[in-house]
Design brief:
It contains eleven helices and ten strands. It is an alpha/beta fold. Strands 3-2-4-1-5 form a five-stranded parallel beta sheet, sandwiched between helices. Strand 2, helix 2 and strand 3 form a beta-alpha-beta unit. Helix 6 packs across helix 7 and helix 9 runs antiparallel to helix 10.
């Protein structure tokens, strides 16, 4: 019987944020396995999913569910145990916890209470997708999941249209075609991008090219969540004095959307770029 099974932690007291494989079990680090064996308790997004992974590696540390529906209440219980000197691990269904996954309230509470929080790094889907996308990696923005409703999604994409850094998104299989269609419309069908799914697994798929060319392959593959990597705008929108001044005058009398459209007509600037400029100035 291991120390964690007998109720005594083999790890230092504190909260361990542990990355687990996103597909290939060979990516489960030796350190991650040792930590999960050595803590007293593992907080998992879905105990059924994590239970299968841990059983495969012979890890029998007790599991407790910590997901989006109970994390605030459950975090209080876990924090009480951490204050008493427990060693607890936090894992998600796959990849690095807190990256579009639960756990932030617990980590924030632990830090605020002066409890040590340790990183046990490993796989992360968006980092893996970026590394094989062929798009610039020196500066990027991770946006996670876009709004599920079409109007809100297009609004957010419009706000990002002028972003010069590489953009990274997660998307569900049933929304990927609609999202790519909106991206091609808002960013332009020729904007370079890469979409990937099932990374590190047997059927790993990566498609790269102009946004308009990626809709068909996405439509043909309906399983697994996607990571969408989109090139930033090659040339940031012109913020010349004339454009800014015209927009400022019109926005004082009209709604921003209408002011941006008129400014674009008067100056020849792209409407989406002018609207994004207006949003930045408004913020």
């Amino acid at each position: 019987m291991s120390e964690s099974e007998s109720g005594r932690s083999a790890e230092r007291a504190g909260l361990y944020v542990v990355a687990t494989p996103i597909g290939n079990l060979g990516d489960f680090s030796v350190r991650a396995q040792e930590v999960l064996r050595g803590v007293e308790l593992i907080a998992a997004e879905d105990t059924r999913v994590s239970g299968r992974l841990l059983a495969h590696f012979g890890i029998r540390t007790p599991l407790i569910a910590l997901h989006e529906h109970n994390e605030r209440e459950r975090s209080e219980d876990l924090l009480a145990r951490l204050r008493e000197g427990a060693a607890i691990a936090l894992i998600s269904d796959a990849g690095t916890p807190l990256i579009s996954d639960p756990g932030l309230p617990l980590v924030r509470a632990a830090r605020a209470a002066g409890i040590a929080v340790y990183a046990v790094p490993g796989p992360c889907a968006f980092v893996a997708a970026l590394s094989v996308s062929g798009l610039p990696t020196d500066r990027f923005v991770f946006e996670g999941f876009l709004p599920s409703r079409a109007a809100a999604r297009r609004r957010r994409l419009t706000e990002l249209a002028a972003e010069p850094r590489t953009l990274i998104f997660y998307e569900a299989p049933h929304r990927i075609v609609d999202t790519l269609t909106d991206m091609a419309d808002v960013f332009g069908a020729t904007r370079e991008a890469a979409i990937s799914r099932e990374l590190t697994k047997l059927h790993e798929t990566v498609h790269a090219g102009p946004l308009g060319d990626l809709i068909a392959p996405a439509q043909a593959e309906t399983r697994g969540e996607w990571v969408v990597v989109v090139a930033g705008r090659a040339q940031p929108p012109s913020a010349s004095a004339d454009i800014e001044r015209t927009l400022e005058i019109l926005a004082a009398e009209l709604p921003l959307k209408q002011a941006a459209a008129l400014t674009a007509k008067l100056t020849g600037a792209a409407k989406n770029d002018v609207y994004a400029l207006g949003l930045r100035k408004k913020r």
